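### Sample
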Amino acid sequence: MKISILVLENNFNHLSFYNSLFQILKGESIIVYTTKLIEEKILNSDIKFVVMNDNESVFKFLKKNRKNLNNSDSIIIEQPYTYFFSLIINILSLKTNKTLVIHNINTWCFPVGTAKIKILIYNIIRQIIYKFSNDIIVVSPNLKHYLDKLVLDKNIYFFPFKHPNVNFVSRSNINNEKIKIIIPGMIDTKRREYDSILDAFLVSLNNGVNNIQLILLGKLNPNKSTIIQKISDINQKYTNSIIYFTSFIPENVFNQHLELCDFLLSNLNTYYNNSKTPEIYGITKESGISALMIDYEKPCIIKGDFIPINYSYNQCIVYNTQNDLINIFSDISVKNINSHAFSKIAVENKKKIIIETNKNKNNYLNNHS
């Protein structure tokens, strides 16, 4: 089966999904149309790339590749953020099946009305692209279940944000090192809440919890972030209690930290509004942490309103207040909460995600071959 995949923006936050998509479709004839920077960061060496030249516009790139794209059995379009008109003019008129990857369901499928002209125009453009797409790919079974109830004229497929590694063996807390708790993802104070976590962690350190290390596993911009001073103050008093990064983290380094950690921690604001259309994490928008907790077989500390993948609640430790979080840190410190106790649960959850992924893959290939 000939599959063309369009990844025409340097969205490094979605690299895990691109690698997951290529792994799921391995064995098919895949050509990825993309940028030079994305090509350099893709781990799969078996993929054939068609790369935009330096200073080449997306419009010209798509126009010159229209014929080859039209010869595909299916074109998978990664959710665009900027090149809307290039896509509408060059791709939507092709007869080939077009499958749109959607990460923000409400923004693309059910936008909220607005009096602001710019947002209204973007909403109309997205609706045109959505309407002319034959099928939809989402990155979570929760999102698929939500769309299945509301969208009747398109097939909805679930391909996970991170492809489950069936050969993974948990290696947490080797050599009696500190207990490592990771908050994965780019440091973004609009999407995530840091102050209460840092405050709770400082209280725990002051209370004598000295065997836990907090790792912010995402790029922190020291010039813009309001939290770096708080981190520096904590580290000055308790050396290396918080690890953070000020540059892009290569995927192999990112993965290594996840393999060796003991717990994940989600500090997401469940209700997210960036494009004036509200999204709900776990229902209309997904966080990578839902896939990471399953793939790396880790327990995850979550806020009470966070919605993980529907069958992975049994991997979660829930907090509602800052005091709850302080108590959780204390229990983890004295091993009242042990990450290894979650291993068997996580393995079973991974089996479920693999079964669901294979089912969606087979449906996709059967419907487009």
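Residues 174-350 form a domain with the Rossmann fold fold (CATH 3.40.50.2000). This sample (Glycosyltransferase) is used throughout the tutorial notebook.
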